[in-house]
Amino acid sequence: MYLTRFRVNTARPGARRLLSSPQSLHAAVMASFPGLLPTTSTGGAEGPRVLWRLDHNARAEVFLYVVSPGRPDLTHLVEQAGWPAAALDPDTPGWQSRPYTPFLDRLAAGDVWEFRLTANPVHQIRRKDGEPTKRTAHLTPVHQQGWLLDPKRQERAGFRILEKPQDQRLLPGGTTHHNHPHHGDRYQLTVRDERALSFAKSREERSQAHRVKFVMVTFDGRLEVTDPDALRRTLTQGLGKAKAYGCGLMTLAPVPTPPAPGE
Predict the structure, then answer these.
(1) Residue 208 CB: number of other CB atoms within 10 A?
(2) Among 23, 72, 149, 169, which residue's beta carbon has the most beta carbons within 10 A?
(3) Where are the membrane-spanning stretches (predicted)?
(4) % of the chain surpassing 70 pLDDT
(5) Which residue has the higher pLDDT, 85 or 247?
(6) Torsion of CA 210, 215, 218, 223, to 10 degrees
(7) Strand, coil or helix: 78
(8) CB neighbours of 224 closer than 8 A, spacing ≥ 6?
(9) CB 144 within 8 A of CB 216
(10) Is the pTM of this model over 0.85?
């Protein structure tokens, strides 16, 4: 497995076209694997697959992250949406790609990590008796956090989101005005950057009925590893729906060391 980072040159028209279309960006990511034919499966229920995510850290600082079974070649992305002149130096081809398996192999139960996840929090609803259920997006931060905090989802994914110490909580738990459970700010978890996307799957299909519509949000937080094998599966197969459109990729980072007294 490989973890790859590519900085997008947001000043270029090609970058703006890719950033505005998850369908186009997905196609560009998949074109990064010379040995992957259009008819090749990119991962079944258990196998590794290609996952990608955009991190919008600032207006001119956008990174594309890719987790993949093979090492990608992003030359075409550099030409469309990177810095081709800077990439002429063989030491800086325009992206960084690192073996991911050694890191995955070191994961152990009890490890604590900071994480980032862009996901598509959804649930099934039935508006009338007798109607089939319909997949619907969670639209409020409380419900979006509730989706990730679901105990069964965390258990299957191999982690537990950590709680804040009592003296650091600012909002009490309770219920919403609809009497739904509200966890206050009990957990070390934030949700941000909600984006409602709507786009055509192809140039030929422009009717509303054939448009892809979904909501994605980005979670930042801190977790404890409870099941290393399950977490490895989460990190390489993704979490939730809409994986082809930039959702599902979770990455981990070391927890910052607190400054020593007097520093």
Answers:
(1) 8
(2) 72
(3) none
(4) 91
(5) 247
(6) -100
(7) helix
(8) 110, 111, 112, 159, 160, 162
(9) no
(10) yes
CA distance 63 to 66: 10
E strand or H helix that includes residue 206: none
Q: Return the SS3 of 81.
A: helix
Query: Contact, 86 vs 92, CB < 8 A?
Result: yes
pLDDT tens-digit map of 160-213: 999 998 888 887 777 777 777 777 789 999 999 888 888 877 666 666 667 888
- The Cα-based distances of 158 to 9, 51, 110, 230, 231 in angstroms read 35, 18, 11, 5, 4
CA angle, 117 as apex, 114 and 119 as ends, to 5°?
160
Q: Which amino acid is at 97?
A: S
What are the tens digits of pLDDT across the range 40-74?
Answer: 555 555 556 899 999 998 888 999 999 999 999 99
Contact 216, 195 (CB under 8 A): yes
End-to-end CA distance of the chain: 39
Q: Is the pLDDT of residue 159 over 80?
A: yes
Cα–Cα nearest to 2, from 60, 66, 48, 62: 66
| C-alpha triplet 3, 75, 71: angle, nearest 5° | 30
